[in-house]
Amino acid sequence: MSVVRKFRPPNRLKAMIKVRGGLLAKDAVAAAETGVETLRDPCLAALDEALVEIERRFLPEVAGREAETFEALYDLVSKILDVAGFAADASVDQAAISLCALVDNCAEAEAWRWEAVDVHINALRLLRNHGATLPEDHRQAMIDGLHTISGLKAEIG
Fold first, then answer.
1. pLDDT tens-digit profile of 83-100?
2. CB of 123 within 8 A of CB of 146?
3. CB-based contact 51:124 (threshold 8 Å)
């Protein structure tokens, strides 16, 4: 009869877990939140800059806006989406998603729908400035309306 020998190499992770020290989970989360918070002001500034650029190039009173490309507006709205998490309580992110969908539809049709673009730009500005203070049901009604205009509601629903 043969003897079976079992060999278990030391588990380094198991040993590290038993050693005292390091951060508690709650302290690590607090530190991460503090780190993220340092990004708030620069991100909101980038959001505002993109919105100003959209208004400068795409509002109805801008001469020559018809010559602008779909990609130019899409890129500017994408910049808003990149940082909109800091304004999520105002639903800016949802309005930007709807405008991206609208621009996609315009690009596919190779024709601008200027009234719809104008409504989205006005909604973005309103939500950025006052969205966090609006009642949730009012913000949601705005977003639902934008989704209907952009055709996003049909894609989702």
1. 999 988 999 999 999 999
2. yes
3. yes
